[in-house]
């Protein structure tokens, strides 16, 4: 168990290292010169001034040296200073992160409850319920999230006035109230895939002999669905929910823009538009870390759900 | 105490599925009495398991059913909802063929047993736990207190089969359906399990339907043996008589397929052809195509199960026990008796040839014991 944990941690670090280089190089290779921006635009720009700025921000050094410097600072907890705001990048992210995390958490809650629920319903009540679930979730998935956002805003925000249409709110109740529509628009697209995976996984589990055996021994259908079908179907469902949540961490920008939320997504887009290297790199690194952490967590939980996985791994 | 009412009584059970050329089950009639072991033998797809599942009220959905299935006086096929669940939970229990497939791989052995117990009336958790350990001990599993905390993949096939039997016994059922309960096990484990089942039957007067494809095993273990072919019963005899003197050509064919001690390779005579699929239909006897003794008339003769002559003649002061039944046109007795007397008591008009064969069957029975 410990050695497996260690292996997983080592893999995580290696992936992060590789990702950090790709991120750094990609931002470095992006068109446009940050030094021009830092020097205050092209007007009245002298080559001397540009060179001075380059030297001040170490932009004149080779890529690998810059990367090494950045990585070294990152490892010491210093993500650098924003070119644009001149603030510590860590502070910028810290002020934006809670909104994004709350949004993704809320959206995850919605798509897990509704998606898994719809999938279970479709698998248990075949026929028209099944078709209705598949049809409705496919429709929901085919609508882009910003279109869904506009629809939800015009219906629940403007016509009924139940929910605020912008801002993140304060306090737990306020946050939930403000984030309901954004989280719902994000979750809608995930409903189709999660409900489909749940349904298929449930059908596969229901075809097992032990389900038939349980039925033959007079166990009520409710218990069979819960303890013998859903319980055994959880593996693929958990994996899919983990992947979707991890993907959402990096995909909040559209919804943040549509609902005027200042989260990490909008921070990233602004940073890229203004060549704010340190911020863009840090946010990307954070997103990659989030993705890797979530998928590794799923891997860690998997053996708890299926003891056979545990046995295979310890034998290997 | 005479057997007034059979524990399991299946009468004329016919099951047709849409899209198949022949019925899954055709006119299946059988009885299992309290404390009796009835063997059910046949090739794969002959309808053995389907017959057993009928006793649980588990027939394939969408099928058309005729006939009656009663267990302990209850008409099983009309049971619905809670009554059907109670019937499955308390009256009849099935021991499944593959124990590894019959157990939920992600749940503990103890949970499997307590779940069965909960629906058989033991609702107190602590009592159910204790009873689960007790049951595992009763089926001869060493260190039962440890095994209740284990999961199926940690146990061997023989141990799992014992767990499945313990699960079936949790309900203290009146009727046990053993569907190839020992086929997947090695011979020593098989012997232990069979011995265990025999003890349980003696202790609890449980009736048993013992499904197997091993005719020798059936003959050694069961009181009576019933041979099925293509969803029909082709022969039914007390086990020793069937083994010593099979009447139906198919039964003889099955016996010819089993190697015997001291026999040569030439003694093995496989039944030619394959068991019929559900896409094939038969105007006459379904076995005619593979039967070495078939005559042209067999192709059109609708099979009827007819009684064979009773062993040892009629018993004074009581109804004579039928020696057996078979469904073959060529059996002299079957041809001379009026049809539609399934399970009838006493058969008259036995030919001398049949009488002689019964005598040899009786001596064969002695030898088998």
UniProtKB/TrEMBL annotation, chain A:
It is found in: Cell membrane. CDD domains: TM_PBP2. GO terms for cellular component: plasma membrane. The keyword Transmembrane applies. It is a multi-pass membrane protein. The keyword Phosphoprotein does not apply. One of its GO terms (biological process) is transmembrane transport. Residues 1-25 form the signal peptide. The chain crosses the membrane at residues 101-124, 136-156, 176-194, 237-259, 279-301. Residues 97-298 form the ABC transmembrane type-1 domain. Keywords: Cell membrane, Membrane, Signal, Transmembrane, Transmembrane helix, Transport. Belongs to the binding-protein-dependent transport system permease family. This is ABC transporter permease.
Automatic annotation (TrEMBL), chain B:
It holds the Pfam family ABC_tran. CDD domains: ABC_NikE_OppD_transporters. It comes from the Bacteria. It is found in: Cell membrane. InterPro entries: AAA+_ATPase (IPR003593), ABC_Ni/Peptide_Import (IPR050388), ABC_transporter-like_ATP-bd (IPR003439), ABC_transporter-like_CS (IPR017871), Oligopep_ABC_C (IPR013563), P-loop_NTPase (IPR027417). Residues 343-369 have a biased composition (Low complexity). Residues 8-255 form the ABC transporter domain. It is a peripheral membrane protein. PANTHER family: DIPEPTIDE TRANSPORT ATP-BINDING PROTEIN DPPD, OLIGOPEPTIDE TRANSPORT ATP-BINDING PROTEIN APPD. This is ABC transporter ATP-binding protein.
């Amino acid at each position: 168990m410990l050695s497996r944990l260690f292996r997983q941690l080592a893999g995580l670090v290696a992936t992060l290292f590789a990702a950090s280089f790709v991120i750094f190089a990609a931002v470095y290779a992006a068109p446009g010169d940050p030094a021009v921006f830092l020097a205050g635009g092209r007007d009245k720009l002298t080559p001397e001034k540009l060179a001075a700025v380059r030297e001040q921000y170490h932009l004149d050094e080779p890529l690998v040296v810059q990367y090494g410097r950045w990585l070294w600072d990152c490892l010491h907890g210093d993500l650098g200073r924003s070119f644009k705001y001149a603030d510590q990048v860590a502070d910028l992210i810290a002020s934006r992160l809670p909104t994004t995390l709350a949004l993704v958490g809320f959206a995850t809650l919605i798509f897990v409850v509704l998606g898994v629920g719809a999938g279970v319903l479709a698998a248990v009540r075949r026929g028209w319920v099944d078709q209705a679930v598949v049809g409705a979730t496919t429709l929901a998935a085919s609508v882009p999230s910003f279109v869904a956002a506009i629809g939800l805003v015009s219906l629940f925000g403007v016509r009924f006035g139940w929910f605020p249409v912008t801002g993140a709110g304060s306090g737990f109740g306020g946050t939930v109230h403000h984030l309901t529509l954004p989280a719902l628009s994000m979750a809608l697209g995930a409903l189709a895939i999660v409900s489909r995976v749940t349904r298929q996984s449930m059908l596969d589990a229901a075809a097992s002999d032990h389900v038939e055996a349980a039925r033959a021994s007079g166990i009520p259908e409710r218990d069979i669905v819960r303890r013998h079908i859903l319980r055994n179907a959880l593996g693929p469902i958990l994996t899919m929910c983990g992947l979707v949540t991890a993907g959402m961490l990096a995909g909040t920008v559209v919804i943040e823009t549509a609902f005027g939320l200042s989260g990490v997504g909008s921070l990233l887009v602004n940073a890229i538009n203004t060549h704010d290297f340190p911020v863009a790199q840090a946010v990307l690194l954070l997103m990659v870390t989030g993705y890797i952490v979530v998928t590794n967590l799923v891997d860690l939980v998997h053996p708890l759900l299926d003891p056979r996985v545990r046995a295979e791994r310890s034998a290997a | 105490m005479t057997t007034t009412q059979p524990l399991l009584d299946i009468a004329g059970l016919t099951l047709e599925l849409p899209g198949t050329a022949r019925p899954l089950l055709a006119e299946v009639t059988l009885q299992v009495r309290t404390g009796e072991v009835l063997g059910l033998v046949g090739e794969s797809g002959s309808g053995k398991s389907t017959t057993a599942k009928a006793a649980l009220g588990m027939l394939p959905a969408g099928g058309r059913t005729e006939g009656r299935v009663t267990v302990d006086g209850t008409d099983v096929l009309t049971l619905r909802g809670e009554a059907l669940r109670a019937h499955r939970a308390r009256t009849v229990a099935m021991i499944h063929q593959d124990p590894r497939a019959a157990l939920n791989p992600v749940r503990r052995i103890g949970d499997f047993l307590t779940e069965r117990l909960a629906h058989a009336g033991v609702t107190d958790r602590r009592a159910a736990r204790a009873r689960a350990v007790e049951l595992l001990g009763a089926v001869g599993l060493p260190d039962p207190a440890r095994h209740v905390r284990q999961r199926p993949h940690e146990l061997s096939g023989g141990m799992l089969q014992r767990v499945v039997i313990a699960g079936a016994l949790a309900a203290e059922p009146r009727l046990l359906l053993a569907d190839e309960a020992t086929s997947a096990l090695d011979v020593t484990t098989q012997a232990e399990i069979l011995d265990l089942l025999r003890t349980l039957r003696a202790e609890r007067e449980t009736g048993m339907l013992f499904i197997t494809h091993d005719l020798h095993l059936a003959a050694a273990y069961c009181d009576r043996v019933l041979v099925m072919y293509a969803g029909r019963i082709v022969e039914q005899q007390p086990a020793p008589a069937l083994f010593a003197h099979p009447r139906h050509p198919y039964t003889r064919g099955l016996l010819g397929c089993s190697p015997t001690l001291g026999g040569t390779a030439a003694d093995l005579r496989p039944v030619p052809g394959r068991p019929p699929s559900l896409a094939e239909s038969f105007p006459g006897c379904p076995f005619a195509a593979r039967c070495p003794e078939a005559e042209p008339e067999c192709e059109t003769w609708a099979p009827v199960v007819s009684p064979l002559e009773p062993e040892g003649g009629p018993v004074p002061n009581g109804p004579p026990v039928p020696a057996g039944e078979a469904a073959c046109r060529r059996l002299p007795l079957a041809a001379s008796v009026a049809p539609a007397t399934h399970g009838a008591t006493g058969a008259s008009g036995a030919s001398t040839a049949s009488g002689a064969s019964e005598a040899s069957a009786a001596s064969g029975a002695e030898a088998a014991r």
